[in-house]
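Notes continue from the previous slide.

Worked example: a multi-chain complex. Inputs as given:
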Amino acid sequence: MADTRTLEVELSTTGLDAQGRPQRVPLVTGGDTGDFSVSPPPSLEPELTADHMLINLGPQHPATHGVLRLVLELEGETVVRCIPHIGYLHCGFEKIGEYRQYNQIITWTDREDYLNSIGNNVAFALGAERLWGIDITERCTVLRVIACELSRIISHLVWLGTTCIDIGAFTPFLWAFQERENVYNLLEGWVGARLTTSATRVGGMAADIPAGWLDGLRNFIRTFPNTVDEIDRMLTKNAIWVGRTVGLGIMTPEEAINWGLSGPMLRASGVDYDVRKDFPYLDYETYDFDVPVGTNGDVYDRYLVRMEELRQSVRILQQAFDRLPDGPINVDDPRVILPPKSKATSEMESMIHHFKHVMEGPRPPVGESYVAVESPKGEKGYYMVSDGTSKPVRWRIRPPSFVNLSAIPKMVEGHLLSDVIAINASIDIVMGEIDR
Amino acid sequence: MTAAGRFEIITTGHAAGEAPSPVTPKNVSHLAGTPNPSAAALSEKFPLAVERTLVVWGETVVYVSRTSVLEMMEWLRDDPTQRYDYLSDVTAVEYRDFDQPLEVVWHLRSLPFRRFLRVKVQLPKSGPLEVPSVWSIWKSADWLERECFDMFGIKFTGHPDLRRILMWEQYREGYPLRKDFPLRGRFSRAEQLRQALAQNPESRYSMEELTVADAFEDLPEDMRRRLSAGEKTGE
């Protein structure tokens, strides 16, 4: 007879007795007779004993950064195939835009890539101004550069914090979100809103910066690099961080271009395409900054690129701070800019102008424009077609994270299930922008 | 990381030669801008396929005929004097005037030459809404073409997996970005709600996903036939 021992083990779900105590299960150490007193449990789902297994990741999962659903075919723990499903947040922004005046659409641009809302405002205003052929004022240009770079910092900090959480580090998340709070305080002081800024108007800005605001910006420029260095010391040579990110989701430069990747995803693969350098806007060619480029195209390089971009954004902010000129923020163009309120309430012509401007909206000439900016996620383009009425015939958003996400099946195949989380995090998706 | 990386760094604009470094466009003219040299090269290479060329706000638009799209795009990518290696966007435009044709728009970038080109195909509404897919040239066309199909109902022939992407697969109201689609949808709110609640997309797997799991082969013959005919599981 096999000798029988009794061990106390905790089984995962069953195995509790009526009093809630773990049951004592006799275990048999192997005897010659093969007489097992405990037979293995019957398989509940016989199909799952097949080689491959289907896993549904999302749509409600904290590590998918929104309502993204990935259907994964696993062989053991290795991903063999990945089929993404999107559209859970689709609310028809582009359709709604065809029924709104240009200045009304700006509030919708807040809500697509909501981590980069003020950057989207700027991008949309640039596209609409191209439709009128307007060149904005010097002060407005510099203020918009400040807005874009602050917004890039916010977006990269959220990316950094959430990716840390995904990979298992908690402290950098708190540091990153603390700094993000500081930027939001600055934005709140400027335009009154934190997340949904709606800061620009066609031909200018909704508001000039208030008195004393630049002190806050100077303070931020001075202190923020310390936080970046701190996170850098915490993560860049951390064995766990390196182990979880190096060699994952590699895209070669040729593949990355062919798949249409942009932003840090493309640059981590070793292509130095940056809209600010290659197709400049807002006088970015006059700022002195570097474009960080990776050479391995993996998750770790994407992290390095984004960390360096944070530092470069501070450089641009410093230069914009130094050169910020005085002057008007709105162009002197009655086609798009409202008359001053004092005139609208005292002069008949200005009142009519104000009324027509608000009720009917400014009308661009017939034409079309595609203006792309370097958003934190990549090349964000607004394509607008005007038929001469006050509402666009077509307002198209070229969403960078939509195109970047389309490469995820290629990136995750052959990697472990746990690496899918890291690769997905490295894309820096915002589902509001993908589904629109 | 070590200084010696694995990939050679690709520098944009390296083929542009002595061209001045790009600057922010100022005082852009409405219709009198300088055309992109690729437009003239295209008309020379494909004289019959290029219908017309114009410059709007400094951006060159080339109208081409539908049948030669694939050939032209391949030439644009591969020709050493063009090298449009980056497909930014694929979308479509429908005008408010019903008689105007639908337009399919490709936004191309040449990273080596730092050029930007807009290619358009006009699809009259009387004919089939079909254009060749450029998926075989640029993989970025995959989801962009699916979205364009989903929103406008334009068929990209040759696309390997042309399914709806933003709307769910059983969506029956039509194509949301078409001008004949009302802003609030075709059906009443009650009907839309009923259909949306009946969807429960997580409970289904598409045909493709069923074949993934090898479960499809284990199904009885009649169920396999029904699924192949488009019926969905998880009802």
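Summary box: The first strand of chain A starts at residue 4 and ends at 8. The beta strands of chain A are 4-8, 24-28, 52-57, 69-75, 78-85, 200-201, 204-205, 367-375, 378-386, 394-398.
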